[in-house]
Amino acid sequence: MGGGGFTAARGDPALDELVLELTATPCPRICLLPTAGGDSEHQIRRFHETYGDRLCEPSHVSLFRLGRRPVPLREHLLAQDAIYVGGGSMVNLLAVWKAQGLDEILKQAWRQGIVLAGLSAGSMCWFEYGVTTSLGRPAPAPGLGFLPGSNSVHHDSEPARRPVYLEAVGAGAIPPGYAADDGAGLLFRGTSLHEVVTARENARAYEVTPRGERALTPRRLAPASNTAATIPAVAELRRLRLARLAD
Amino acid sequence: MTRPRQILALGGGGFSMESGNALLDDHALALTGVDCPKVCFLPTASGDADHYIVRFYRAFPADRCQPSHISLFRRDGGAADLAAHLRAQDLVYVGGGSVISLLGTWSAHGIDGMLREAWEAGVVMAGLSAGSLCWFEHAMTAFHGASTAVRGMGFLPCSNAVHYDDKPERRAAYVAAIKDGLPAGYGTGDGAALHFVGTELAEVVTSREKARAYRVAPLGAEVTETELATRFLGAPLAVEPALAA
Question: Does some domain include residue B1?
Answer without folding.
Answer: no
